[in-house]
Amino acid sequence: MIILKHALANAHRYSKADFKAVAAKVFAEDPESRKNAKKIIPEIKNVVADVNKMTKEEITAKLEEIAPELLHRKKKDENKELPPLEGAENGKVRLRLPPEPNGYLHIGHALSFWLNYLYAKRYEGKLIMKLEDTNPTGEKKEYYDAILRDTKWIGIKWNELFILSEKMNEIEKAAEDLINFEKAYVCKCPEEKVRDRRMKLEADPCRTHNKQENRRLWREMFAGNKYTLRWKGDPAAKNSVMRDPTLYRVINKEHPHTKINHIAYPTYDLASAFTDGLLGITHVLRSEEFLMRAELHKAIIESLGMTAPNYVHFGRFDMEGSPTSKRFIKELIINGEVEGWDDPRLATIMALKRKGIVPKTFEDLAKTTGTRGGRRMISNKLLHGFNKKNIDPIAKRIFVITEPVELELKGEEMIVEMRSHPIQELGTREVSLGKRVFIEKDDYKESLLRLKGAYNIEIKGKTAHYAGSELIRPIVQWLSDPIDGILWRPGTVMKTKVSVDNKKPEPITEQDKDIGKNQVLVERGSFKEGEIVQMERIGFARIDSVKPLRLIYISN
Ligand SMILES: [Zn+2]
């Protein structure tokens, strides 16, 4: 039956069953059968031959009957391909990563950046790191550095670096062109008035300014007059973005990057759209929150005689249990609920790195989530599912005891040499077994157990007696000569459902907030900061600091 089901499944998937593939599956499921290979191999050959005589329908029907789980099995994630980009030509695709340096990158950026990077590679195109820094009020030097650092860290390589604030003359010139083309006008009205008219779908009286007047008022803006330059859209447009949006406004502040005080600064809409056109971006891949703006951005670019990119909008990414909004994160920091932007309970890239998420995991997640629409919650299960596959092969095994019970050991003192990884070649380690031994409180009872890598003991009271060496269970981790460490199991800061848009997510109850930092005993060894280890029988952890030794729990 094992042979038949694998032969059917293989035939179902690849239209013909392959003897080698089927044999591999059979031996994997039943390793004992290898011993009878001489007898089983001809059997497999016969079954494969029979199955290959069956029709597609017969194969499906039979498989449905004997092993439906193989019929409905999903293809592996690695095989998943992103959908093609409309109008993409090999070698000509130009994509961009457009962060604003007014905060740290989070998981949403990481996935969106990875999607762009995957497409750039797929079409042998160019990827541009485009820092959209034309609002000098929130931008800071530390964010510029962090954005570049974190983007590199998640594994992304860009081809060009483009900083908008260095192109202010070009952006100003584009605004002047729009005035000359009568696509923009200077509005002298106060903000409330503008908002009010927008709501009532009323036309602004400033729309009647002629070119000369607009040019004069435009110059006055740069003398500090608090006017705005507005797109001449449609005051009654269904898409509210098109109701004469602002393109330029007076901020009168020195720019943190260029150190130039420009007085008037372009809005995101003008600066981002114009420079997308200037850079010849072919595809803008971004989340659905920008959906309404595409019409405006396209109109701006085309009015300036350039070709607008294709806009692809995908669902926004949220992280289970953690806000991604800068405002909410700042609030948590100010209120002292988290320790900083890299607190492992947060969803910033810095925080996820500290929590032991590795770069490959972001790539895997991006491939899985793809460019589908609709808001997506990245669950911890999904995140850690991918991450575990990536860290398991590199994580050295160590002994850690979270709640120690100390026993006197009546047995041989020895240096136990153990593999650092059961399968991978990560070398060996030496753990010394002495006159005393610590075991986990949960393992402590008056019975027999095996000290992993050493021998069996029988526990009587607080004494452990040598009890032979034949393999018995349970097999437990132990330490005789440990070092002290702190194990931090970061909780979450928010209830599972992060609420939509501008509503503040509800904090979770006090006791769920953080499982806390506990004193633990750790195997003596040489650790490196950032190293990922597996604490045997407990789970994976990242070495957060060496002195003092602090581990951050990742997952089990
Ligand atoms: Zn006006």
Helical coverage, percent range:
25-40%
Low-confidence stretches: 75-79, 496-502
| Bound ions, cofactors and other small molecules, one mention each | zinc ion
Determine Rg (CA atoms, Å).
31 Å
Main beta-sheet annotation: 7 strands, mixed
Silhouette: flat
Q: Which architecture of the largest domain does the CATH hierarchy give at level 2?
A: 3-Layer(aba) Sandwich
Distance between the terminal alpha carbons, to the nearest Å? 35 Å
Oligomer: single chain
- CATH class of the largest domain equals Alpha Beta
What report would you give on this structure?
The protein has 4 domains: 2-73, no CATH class; 94-100 and 127-148 and 158-307, Rossmann fold (3-Layer(aba) Sandwich), CATH 3.40.50; 326-394 and 486-522 and 526-553, Glutamyl-tRNA Synthetase, domain 2 (Orthogonal Bundle), CATH 1.10.1160; 396-482, Ribosomal Protein L25, Chain P (Beta Barrel), CATH 2.40.240. The strands form 7 sheets. A 7-stranded mixed beta sheet has the order 12-25-26-27-23-24-13, with no helix packed on it. Residues 75-79 and 496-502 have low confidence and may be disordered. With 556 residues, the protein is of the alpha/beta class. The protein binds zinc ion. The site of zinc ion has 6 residues, from loops.
